[in-house]
Each structure stands twice: as structure tokens, then as C-alpha cells.
Amino acid sequence: LQSIMTDSKDEKEIEDDKSGCPALTPFKFADQEKAERWKSLRNMLSRASEKFAPPPFDPEEDNLAIMQEDFRVLVVGAGGLGCEILKNLALSGFKDIEVIDLDIIDLSNLNRQFLFRKKDIGEPKAKIAAQFVMQRVPGCTIRWYQKPLQDFGEGFYSKFNVVIAGLDNVEARRWLNAMLCDLVQTDDDGQVDPDSIIPFIDGGTEGFLGQARLFVPMMSSCFECSVGTMTPPKVFQSCTIASIPRRPEHCIAYAHKMLWPRLRSLKSASSYDMAPIEDKNVSDPNGIKLDNDDVEHMSWIFNRAVPRRPEHCIAYAHKMLWPRLRSLKSASSYDMAPIEDKNVSDPNGIKLDNDDVEHMSWIFNRAVERAEKFKIEGVTYNLTMQVVKNIIPAIASTNALISALCVNEALKVLTWCSFGLNNYYMYMGQDGVYSRTFNYKKNPQCQVCGSEPLIYKLDPGTTFGTFYQKLLNDPVLKLKTPSVSTNEDKALFMAGKALRSLYEENMSKTLTQLMADNAILRISDPKILGKGIAKIKMVFEAGAIYVPPKDE
Questions:
Q1: What 8-state DSSP symbol labels residue 324?
Q2: Comparing C-alpha atoms, which of 550, 448, 439 is closest to residue 228?
Q3: 3-state class of 471 per DSSP?
Q4: What stretches of 374-510 show up as alpha helix (H) in DSSP?
């Protein structure tokens, strides 16, 4: 009864103006529904195949009816990949589909997201995608939601038989992966209950590159097992920055890495005092600490490097001018704080909305002014969107290929009509057509599905603050706002704004003051790990010194 009440509560929570189900379109040729419409699919699901189907496959006439009436599929993302996934699911016979996407339709989406038209601009992507597919594929039901993933609880996700993600960011994938792993139940002997497993299929594209992965929570490797292998941020070698720069980015990095540490005082971007090059104490702690949110600081760096590309002008409008806005009526009617105003980052200022046309037009106009000043061509509104949103141009053919792979895996994993992917598929089409598959092994130290803790070796005299910096820079964990406690539930640091100040004093304490050697620490980060907990074993080792990166 409690479970029924919980599910009912979840359903009520999602009933609002940002969710719904379009009107069902009846199939005009009902008499052909069984005989002709799904004939090829019926043949595949009702015929035995010892070579192509695994042993659990049971060829029966009612397999098609079971797939269409009993299976519920969740699609996360209704963009370039999500549109193709929804279309393919409906055309593959799935009739109970739900889709989540927070975005609204923009003009730039129309060249590759084929379910949208110009009249749909400003509408929720999930809503229009659901309407379009249901009209074109009668008999299919697609319920849509325009909400963040984190707004839905376990009761919502547990009702699906498979989840397919067509997302554009790693954090959302990590959170979704953690949620599905948390839903897996075990018996008293620690054995996994197969009925509680919800397969997770993840697709991703980047230009001519694509990938499709099948995760079976707690049975195969999960998304988190491979997160440490993702490409790190681009960095520049010091010798290149200091000697002969070849790109505009090198000039900016020179001002940031080589000149900024020599500053002694800074009144404005054009009024400052700098230590001579012979001064060895250029990184002295008494110098000025760079504040990435300080307009004067960032203006000073920007003025040391002359822009040479359209992207630099857009970045200037985005990073330098936008923070100074006080009010904005339209892209040409606004009020800006003077450069001397130190309160340009005041919380009462205007928060940038990447999906607001006026906001993006304002940045575009300022970028054009900057480009004209330095005689740079090529600044366009579309390029402004790409730079500000960090968008990698998508290619429709890659989306079509990867979405087909994802839906193919969903069909196989639900019906057992063929062997599933094991478990990683990569597509590289920039120089022809090349693809490969391989089995990514489980990581025993994975913070979501693993059982072994990560090992941190640090000198006993290391401060907790230095440990926390190491935690934030860990290339495997990739956390955002971690909280730390011992295995005995003693809190050492809570990242929440309300509690953070209560634990700040621990930052200056040594590790030996807060924990014993070989202590197990529990790390939580709801935005990344959901309800998951990462474990770290702290081993004291004399001389094991951690030095945070200089750009910290």
C-alpha cells in the first residue's frame, strides 16, 4: 500500500504545465495493424534462431504484443540525438514512451533536429517532439516533461524497463547512471535481483565521432567506471607561451600565467604596478590573487592580448561586458555599469540566460563592435551561440547512425531477440567509416558500482584544505561540491552553503588531527553522484606531498 501511495504521489508531482501527453492519433487502417503493419517485427520476434539469439529468447506469437503493451521506455534528451531516438522507437513498435528535456527550440536547432519547424521556436523540445512523432506514428503514446532530471525520484525511474540517454553533458549522465544503480536491489546473500535492473543505453556524438554504450547496472561496468578516461581540458606548454606564441590563445595564456603573478597592485586594467622580471618572488602570497569573477582582473588579462579571431570578440562580450549590465530592455536598449564600478558582479545584476534571444543578441552586438575595432571578420549570431554555450557543431548523419544503434540495443535487451552490445561501440567517420566494439571492464574502485575504496597517500602533516584541493582535482572522481565524512559518520566538511562555515576551521587542521591512519572517508556529491557515496582510504606516508595546480 505504501508503494502504491508513493507512486501515486510521484505521478501527482509531475502533473503540471511543463508536462503532458499529446492527443492520441488513431491508426486509420486498424484491420492491418496485426497482419501488415508490424509483419517484419513479428517475424523476428516469433522465429527461433540458435546462432543469432541468446538462450533466454523464447520465440512466441505474443512477443510483439508484450513489447508494445508491457514495456515502457524513457528517453532523456530531445535534441539532435533524442529526436532521432524517439522517431526510431516509435517506428520499431514501442508504444509507451516518455521523454525529458529542459530546453526550448531555437532557430539554430532546425538544421539537424528534424521534428521541429520554424513555427515551433520558443516551444519545449520534449513537447513538440512528442506531438510530431505521435502524429506520424499512430498508436504510439509519448508523455513529455520539461524538467531537470533531478526533479524526479526513484518512484518515477523505477517504472521503466529501459532508459536511453541522448544528453549533451557528462554531469547529467553521471547522475542518471547513479540513480539507476541505486535502484538495483539485492537479497540477504548479496545477490542482485534481476527484476530490479533497468538497462541504461547511452549515446553521444561530436561532429563525425559517435558512441553507443550498453550498461547493465551492477552487472556490467557502469558509466562512472570510465569517466576518468574522458579527455582533460586543453592546456598550453609553458615554453610555447613564453617563447613564440602561434595562436591567440597563447597570448591570453601568457598574460594569465606569466604576467599576472608579477602584479603587485592593480587599480584598474590600465593602472597597475608589476614586479621586474628578475624578481624571484613573483608568486609571493602577498601578491594579488586572481579573481575570475573580477571584471578589472579579467580586463587586465584581456588587454594584454589583442584578439585575432571572431570567437575572441564574442568571448569579450560574454565575459567582459555582460557582467556590467544593470538592466536590459532589448539588445539595443540597456544600462551598463562603468568600468570603474566594482560591484559589476553584484547578485542584483542580470543573470545570463543562454536561451534568451535578447541576451544572446546583446553579446553578439558587443562582439561585432570588438571585431570591427580589430578588423576581424566572421562574427555571426550562430558562432556567438556556439562560443557562449560551448556547442560542438552536430552532424545529422552521425546522429542518425548513433540513435539507430541505441534503439537497436533497446529492442535486443528487452526482447532477447539477439545478442546485446558488449558493451562499447565507437564510430569514427571523419576519414571514412571506421567502427569498433570492445568490452569495458568494471572498475573495482568505481564510486557507484565498485566495492573497493580509492587510495590516497599523503604526508600526516598535510592540511585538510590541501586534501580537499586534491579531491576537487581528482581526474577520476571529477567532483564539483563534495562533502566529506568518516566511515563512522563524523562530518569533516559539508559543502552546502548553510553548513559550510561550520566546518571551515577544519581546512587548516592536519589530517592526523581529524582522522587515523588507514581511515575510510565517505565522499558525497548529490549533483554528480546522486545518492551514491565514493570511498577513499587515507594512508599516511611521510614525504607524500600534494601540490595543487598553480591555476587553482
A1: G
A2: 448
A3: helix
A4: 381-389, 396-415, 464-472, 497-503
Helix (H) or strand (E) holding 522: strand 519-524
Instruction: Give 384's Cβ-side CA count (13 Å radius).
Output: 26
Please write the tens of the pLDDT for every residue from 348-378.
Answer: 456 677 777 777 777 787 777 767 776 777 7
Of 268, 273, 264, give the one whose Cα is nearest residue 300. Answer: 268
pLDDT at residue 342 in the model:
43
How far are the Cα atoms of 49, 241, 264, 414, 428 from residue 402, in angstroms, in the given order? 26, 39, 54, 19, 11
Q: Is 200 in contact with 176 (CB distance < 8 Å)?
A: yes
DSSP code, position 319: I
Which pLDDT score, from 0 to 100, does residue 291 have? 65
Contact 77, 167 (CB under 8 A): yes
What CA dihedral angle connects 392, 393, 395 and 398, to 10 degrees? Answer: 0
Q: Which of 519, 520, 517 is nearest to 540 (CA)?
A: 517
Predicted pLDDT at 270: 66
Query: Which DSSP letter does residue 217 get?
Result: T
Catalytic position from the list 83, 239, 446, 449: 239
Instruction: Name the 3-class secondary structure at 226.
Output: helix
**How far from the centroid of its chain's Cα atoms is residue 165's Cα?**
11
Distance CA 474, CA 36 (A): 56
Q: Which residues of 348-372 are buried (b: 16+ CB within 10 A; e: fewer)?
A: ebbeeeeeebebbbbbbbbbbebbe
CB atoms within 10 A of CB 13: 15
Coil vs helix vs strand at 137: coil
Predicted pLDDT at 317: 74
245-262 tens-digit pLDDT: 444 444 554 555 556 566
Contact between 219 and 449 (Cβ < 8 Å): no
pLDDT of residue 3: 44
Total residue count of the chain as it appears in this document: 552
Indicate if 239 belongs to the active site. Answer: yes
SS3 content of the chain, % helix, strand, coil (to 5): 40, 15, 45
Cut 0.70: pTM above it: no
Place of cell 524517439: 86
Low-confidence ranges of the chain (pLDDT < 70): 1-17, 34-35, 231-270, 272, 274, 277-308, 339-351, 370, 374, 386-387, 389-393, 550-552
Of 458, 296, 286, 312, the C-alpha closest to 379 is 312
Q: Are 544 and 458 in contact (CB under 8 A)?
A: yes
DSSP classification of residue 236: -
Please confirm whether the linkage preceding 365 is cis (ω < 30° from 0): no
On the CB side of 26, CA atoms within 13 Å amount to 4
**Whether the Cβ atoms of residue 327 and residue 334 lie closer than 8 Å to each other:** yes
What's 489's DSSP letter? -
- Give pLDDT, residue 301: 62
Angle between helices 63-70 and 396-415 (to 10 degrees): 110
Q: Does residue 214 contact residue 439 with C-beta atoms inside 8 Å?
A: no
